[in-house]
Amino acid sequence: MFDENKHMTISMGPILVGLMLAFFISAPSAGMTTAKESADDMLSSLTLETSVALCGETVPVDNPQVVERFEKEMLLSLGDHSQVILWLKRTTRYFPYIEQELAENSLPDDIKYLAIAESALRMHAGSRKGAMGVWQLIPQTARKYGLVVDRNFDERRNLYLSTPAALAYLKDLYDRFGSWSLSLAAYNMGEDGLEGEILEQGITDYYRLYLPLETQRFIFRILAIKRIIEAPKKHGFFFSPSDYYALETFSSVQINGFTEIPLRLIADAAGTDFKTIKDFNPELRGHYLAAGTRMVNIPVDAKGGFQARLATGIEADNKQRNQRVYVVKKGDNLSGIAKKFDVPLAALLIWNRIGVNKVLHPGQRLVIFPGAGERKTGRKGIDGGFGG
Fold this sequence. Notes:
The protein has helices spanning 12-26, 35-45, 64-79, 81-104, 112-119, 139-144, 159-177, 180-189, 191-201, 213-230, 263-269, 274-280, 306-323, 334-340, 345-352, 372-377, and strands at 52-54, 57-59, 251-257, 261-262, 288-289, 292-298, 325-327, 365-367. It is mostly helical. It has 3 domains: 12-243, Orthogonal Bundle (Lysozyme); 251-322, no CATH class; 324-377, LysM domain (Membrane-bound Lytic Murein Transglycosylase D, Chain A, Roll). The strands form 4 sheets. The chain has a two-stranded antiparallel sheet. The longest helix has 24 residues, at 81-104. Mean pLDDT is 87; it is low at 1-32 and 375-384.
């Protein structure tokens, strides 16, 4: 699980101070908030109703240990004021799509809070265990549910591709365990590990199982997130509609490539920049779109005429590449070639899709676009270095 809070060793003293400051900062400007009022607000945020549910299942709040575990996660979450603000701001950008998918799959709406617990709704969130994306899927699970994870694509990073896979996985977990608390615990620690603990301990109640500490916290972290997101004002966060991030919108186009296509050409055809294409398509790795057929997201108003502009751009780029070929000579190395043509070594590697440790051989052909000096002088080559 990705956890931006990293509060495992924070003492309660700093947490209380942080929460008091948070309530002071976020209180309405009409009046000052005293330390006593902040403390009262903080304590009231911990008060649980007599009936609490997650994914339609009752949480046993009559158990003092359950209440204590919940209060800990509430305090830890509220203690990171800036993180909660980012949670809230991102919900309006991504929750509408997640909610739609949950409804279409007849799954509990509360599962959307799992995405915050796992990644804080960050596309590129990663973990030491190799999990990635909003849903923090490991490569094996992602591939099992139809996602591509290779050197060209990591579809775990794309919310619109990874959400159906994550929900299919959750459905299978529910079919296996028969409760959402156990299914979410299995999502966190792995289904085989959870089943092993259930068999050994003879307990099928999440709230009574002894599990890895992270998993013991996990359901309560989701409960805390749900409580804060559903009633931000009650917890000291006063937002106006303009404070939230806008819903993400884009158009999708099909690109058919016989060879790799530089993303900069796709950006040019879409009338935008490289960063926008990468942001709209976070699953794309590197600087090129791999050969084949692929749906790519572009700005909404760029779809008309896109294919024609892209075809023109590819043709011009291929022509320029054919005119910018350098034939490697004996004794050449990448650093020396980059210096000779006044181009960054990093750019030389990108243009030729090679690594810095690539061994060059005489006769090998490299594409080299104009460097800073050449652009200033307008010279086509340096020392007659380009050739067929």
